[in-house]
UniProtKB/TrEMBL annotation:
Keywords: S-adenosyl-L-methionine, Transferase
Source organism (scientific name): Candidatus Methanophagaceae archaeon ANME-1 ERB6
InterPro entries (UniProt xref): SAM_HAT_C, SAM_HAT_N, SAM_OH_AdoTrfase, SAM_OH_AdoTrfase_C_sf, SAM_OH_AdoTrfase_N_sf
Annotated S-adenosyl-l-methionine hydroxide adenosyltransferase N-terminal domain residues: 36-177
This protein's name: Chlorinase
UniProt key word Transferase: yes
Amino acid sequence: MTVKTVAIVAIALVAGAVMFPGCITQEEAESANMPIVLFTDFGTESYWVPHLKGIIYSVNSDARVIDGTHEITAFDIREGAFLLYLAAKDFPADVVFIGNVAHPREGRYIVLTTDKGQISVGPDNGLFTYIIRNFEVKSVYRISNQSLFTKPPNSLFASQIIGTIGGLIASGFAPKDVGPAVDDPYTVDAHEASIVERKIVGEVVLIDHFGNCITNIPRNMTEEFGLRFGDEVIIVTHDAEIAAMVGTRYQDVPEGNPVIFVNRLDLAEIAINMGHFANTHNIRTGTIIEIEIKA
């Protein structure tokens, strides 16, 4: 067989690998790099976003990077944790989440894997709270392997640590090789929704761009409690009692009026039609709320 013939055969094999989805080579090529999804409080106007991406591409030039969001409220770990959890529910297996909000406790960064086949990289400050609570955690490792960095990790910016490790893991680097196993990843205190003495008690887990407050109260709890369309309720917060109506959407009440309904996440949401509920009533993520049907 001539060199020219060998070359032609090689080209044909490569073309076949691209054209036919059942080819092993194509499958290997597709699985060589897991998508990387970014969740930070850096802000889209910040240099830290391209800096983080530059670090990722420096260690993994074939990386596939997706911007989840960089608009998590600054330092709001609870908000970031809930958004990461929502993404983990929606994304399939073989995805690497890189998250960063605020600073880590004791300077500790971790890599966490779950039974869904997803991997999360970020500070050990509670950012993975809802992932830990809602998925089976398979392993957690502390990032401390000095050989993976040009400088000691404790002298690097967060983006340098999580970008390097996230980029490497997406390309196939084993999570267990980043450092020792951890059995106590930090989680923030979260109030479980419950029915107590004719009240539903829950907490605000997310405030969206419009000031609507999403709670951790699930649909089945509102049904068990007996909330029905048109009911008048009292919403009690840390410093106010707010009259609202049970609806199915914002427009079920006049503009400027509060409404509570179960949203597309199957969670109770409290809002003001064409208004900002959070600002109006000084609500933050973590605010405990009580709901009772007006007598």
